[in-house]
Specification:
The protein is α/β, with parallel strands linked by helices. It contains 18 helices and 15 strands. The protein has a six-stranded antiparallel sheet, covered by helices on one side. A six-stranded mixed sheet has the order 8-12-13-3-14-15, sandwiched between helices. A three-stranded antiparallel sheet has the order 9-10-11. It is flat, with a radius of gyration of 61 Å.
Length: 846
């Protein structure tokens, strides 16, 4: 079986429903309630659970945040859950939205618990559309009859019914497409006419001829430019060769000038070295080198010893000064006690301070514990002072009143149940006075009594809950009253403990004073210990310095003995003499090197002078100048060619652009003409499709009406119902036994009219969604009188089983409760704005 059956809907913080759950079965399920009780909220919950949309959000009359409960308190999120079966499988879909975040999660599961899709809401919607083979729009058209729209076809003015049905079946979309297509065709026709007046073919020919001429002129200029470029290349090569010859001669001249200057500099350097060498007379002596060797040997032997003696004497002086300073510091600490005695006094002071700190810590802990007990005492006294006798008395009074209300409701319910039992025995008599009543009157009274019993049951349940809550409150208050005696004894014990608080505080103050004095004594012992330790350190350091001074004296004496009477002054004179001899030898070497370099420079200058002449340089300059003039003349004659060539090419590019634009316009003209021809053929196809669709839909609707009209209307007054086209409008007609067709508007009563409208709505659903046998009716009794409502209820209750598998009816008419063959619910709204749901009739669809 492929029928779609909705079995359960659950709502949490959804619009006016804080927590509501309803079950549906096959047959007609009825939801009854006054305006604002939350009936239509159920339909939007069904739509949102299946497709993630509602009529309000689709039309943008509301946002998702508007679907979340806002009274009496603003909820942060809302959730809906829907169970349904289709094609032999049972599914459960749930969705959740959060304020400010929109739809945050969704989940589709099979009845066995297997996850089909989730948690992305869009993927869940796609999965449901694939299972049901329809989307939101088709569901709303085929299954959902909007509020007060059951008789909208008959209520529409003459001439508007066709427009209404075209819109319902989607034919309007084809008509809108045709209108848009006509506007496009008109623009194509206008553009074709404009393009035809522009003479594009002649303009294209003229532009092509001009372009060919400009291209020929540009080719000629290009060949001339190439020839000039060849001549210029030759002239450039000759000028480069002449420039190289000139640069070589210029380089030789520069080299000659540089070498001449360098030779003069070296001659001056030689004279300076000879003058310095004349100052050292001993350079030419035969014994100069031997004398230098002896001086160097003496300096190497005695010099380090003289330096060591000087360093040793300096260190001795420094150590003697440090020893004197240390003795002065040590004399300042002469009164410090021995370090062992100072250390012992410091340890005793530290032990005394540590002991006092422990005693102070204990005293402070005892003080904190007493303070905590004082706080407990104040809290318990406050609890004891806040007596509960008055509150217990009031609670007992409220409990007694609640018991009376429950007893009264129970008695009233029993009376109503007795009256209902009497009416249900099939007797047409009043259960109070026994007077005769009609069968319809008895049925109406029986239904009223059943509804009243249901309402009294709900009220009795609420009263029972209230009584249980008050009973629990009285028990708690009595337990609190019994605990007062225990509380009083605890307060007495705490007062006894707090009696010693003043004495403890005095002891703590005394201990803290002793601790302060002991800490000061400890600081004095620490100062004495540091003085003693510093005196010991200085004494050790003075002894070490004295030993170092004696060691330096011994070392200096040893060095003097090794020098054997030689002084640092004699060593310094030998060093100066050795330096003078070494400098004279260095100057001699430099002089020989400079003379050699001067001779090499003179030879190079002579070689360069033999290769260079001023006449050759002048001839090279003249040749190079002549070649530069020839090259400039060639450049000047060729400079005008690129400008002319560029102008020709620019003109050719402009002509190419104009030709491209004309060609584009010609191509556009051809495309527009093709598009115009296509739009005309498409208009004819759309018109034919529109007419054929209307005809096929009309045939399908009438076929459906023929298949089930006798089931909905089993009387002999009218044997058939059809939808008939009349020029530019549609008529809903009934056929009499004689075979005549008459308009429903003219001959049908209110009840017959409602049945005809219901049949038409069912036919629409079967045509649009042939695999679904579900219809949702929202307030279908618009413009119906009481008899028509009763007739509609009878049809939904007795003759719908063979036509549809499930109907969900939402109404404010209590008389339509009689239509229920499935579950029936009563919806109400509290003063705080929340919807409440009570089941009246169970169809066993849980």
């Amino acid at each position: 079986m492929t029928d779609l059956i909705i079995t359960r809907i659950s709502m949490e913080n959804w619009k006016s429903h804080s927590a509501s759950e309803l079950f549906f079965s096959r047959g007609t399920n009825v939801l009854v309630g006054i305006m604002g009780s939350g009936k239509s909220s159920l339909l939007s919950a069904v739509s949102f659970a299946l497709f993630g949309e509602t009529p309000e959000t689709r039309s943008r009359r509301a946002k998702l945040d508007d679907l979340i409960l806002s009274r009496p308190g603003q909820a942060k999120s809302a959730a809906v859950s829907l169970d349904f079966s289709f094609s032999g499988k049972s599914y459960s879909v749930g969705r959740r939205i959060e304020r400010g975040a929109g739809s945050v999660s969704a989940e589709l599961r099979e009845k066995a618990g297997r996850l089909v899709e989730g948690p992305q809401p869009a993927k869940v919607t796609d999965a449901i559309c694939k299972i049901l083979e329809l989307n939101y729009d088709l569901f709303m058209q085929a299954v959902f009859s909007e509020q007060n729209q059951l008789d909208s076809f008959l209520a529409a003015p003459k001439g508007r019914r066709r427009e209404k049905l075209d819109d319902f079946f989607g034919v309007t979309a084809i008509e809108d497409a045709r209108k848009t297509l006509l506007l496009i065709s008109a623009s194509f026709e206008k553009e074709t006419e404009i393009l035809s007046r522009e003479g594009l073919e002649e303009a294209a020919k003229s532009a092509a001829a001009s372009l060919e001429s400009e291209r020929a002129q540009a080719a000629r200029l290009g060949e001339e430019l190439v020839a000039k470029a060849h001549e210029l290349s030759k002239a450039t090569s000759a000028e480069a060769a002449a420039r190289q010859d000139l640069e070589k001669l210029e380089a030789l001249r520069s080299s000659a000038e540089r070498l001449s200057v360098e030779e003069g500099v070296r001659r001056k350097r030689i004279r300076e070295l000879e003058a310095r060498l004349s100052e050292y007379k001993a350079v030419g002596d035969a014994g100069a080198e031997k004398r230098l060797a002896g001086l160097l040997s003496e300096v190497c032997e005695v010099g380090p010893l003289a330096a060591s003696l000087s360093v040793s004497l300096g260190r001795k002086s420094s150590l003697a000064q440090m020893a004197s300073q240390t003795e002065a510091q040590l004399s300042k600490l002469a009164g410090a006690p021995p370090i062992a005695e100072a250390e012992r006094s410091l340890r005793e002071a530290e032990r005394h301070v540590s002991d006092l700190k422990g005693r102070v810590q204990v005293a402070r802990s005892e003080g904190k514990e007493l303070s905590r007990k004082a706080g407990m005492l104040r809290a318990k006294e406050a609890s004891l002072a806040a007596g509960i006798d008055g509150e217990l008395s009031r609670a007992e009074g409220e409990l007694a009143a609640a018991s009376k209300r429950q007893d009264a409701l129970d008695a009233e319910k029993r009376l109503e149940e007795d009256a209902l039992a009497i009416l249900s025995r099939g007797r047409d008599a009043c259960p109070v006075c026994g007077s005769a009543l009609g069968h319809d009157r008895v049925c109406k009274m029986r239904d009223d009594k059943a509804l009243k019993v249901s309402k009294l049951s709900a009220q009795l349940l609420a009263a029972s809950s209230e009584r249980r809550a008050l009973d629990a409150r009285v028990v708690i208050l009595r337990q609190k009253s019994r605990s007062n005696a225990v509380l009083a004894s605890e307060i007495s014990a705490l007062r006894n403990d707090l009696s010693s608080q003043d004495r403890k505080e005095a002891e703590l103050a005394s201990l803290e004073k002793n601790l302060s004095e002991a800490s000061e004594g400890k600081a004095a012992r620490e100062k004495e210990f540091l003085s003693s330790r510093e005196a010991a350190r200085l004494s050790s350091e003075a002894k070490a310095l004295t030993r170092s001074v004696l060691a330096e004296d011994a070392r200096a004496a040893e060095i003097r003995k090794t020098l054997n009477g030689r002084t640092p002054e004699s060593v310094s004179a030998a060093v100066d003499e050795a330096r003078a001899l070494a400098e004279s030898f260095r100057i001699s070497r430099d002089l020989l090197a400079e003379k050699s370099s001067q001779e090499e420079c003179a030879r190079s200058l002579a070689d360069v002078s033999s290769k260079f002449s001023a006449e050759a340089l002048a001839r090279a300059k003249a040749a190079h100048s002549a070649l530069l003039s020839s090259k400039a003349e060639l450049l000047f004659s060729a400079s005008s060619i690129p400008a002319a060539l560029s102008e020709r090419r620019s003109r050719a590019a402009q002509l190419e652009k104009e030709l491209s634009e004309v060609s584009g316009r010609l191509a556009r003209k051809s495309r527009v003409q093709g598009a115009l021809d296509f739009s005309r053929s498409l208009d004819r196809a759309l018109r034919a499709t529109e007419e054929r669709l209307r005809s096929e839909l009309m045939g399908a609707v009438n076929a459906q009406l023929s298949s089930f009209w006798s089931s909905l209307y089993p009387y002999e007054d009218f044997t058939a119902l059809r939808l008939f086209p009349d020029e530019q409008d549609y008529l809903l007609q009934l056929r009499s036994p004689a075979g005549d067709w008459e308009d429903v508007d003219k001959i049908a009563s209110g009840g017959e009219r409602s049945i005809a409208c219901l049949a038409l709505r069912i036919a629409f659903a079967k045509v649009l969604a042939p695999r679904l046998r579900l219809l949702i009716l929202d307030e279908p009794t618009h413009n119906l009188d009481a008899s028509a409502v009763s007739e509609l209820a009878s049809v939904l209750r007795e003759r719908m089983a063979g036509v549809l598998e499930q109907v969900i009816l939402i109404t404010h008419e209590e008389d339509l409760e009689a239509a229920a063959t499935g579950n029936c619910y009563s919806l109400e709204r509290s003063k705080a704005g929340e919807s409440t749901v009570a089941r009246l009739v169970s169809g066993g669809g849980d």
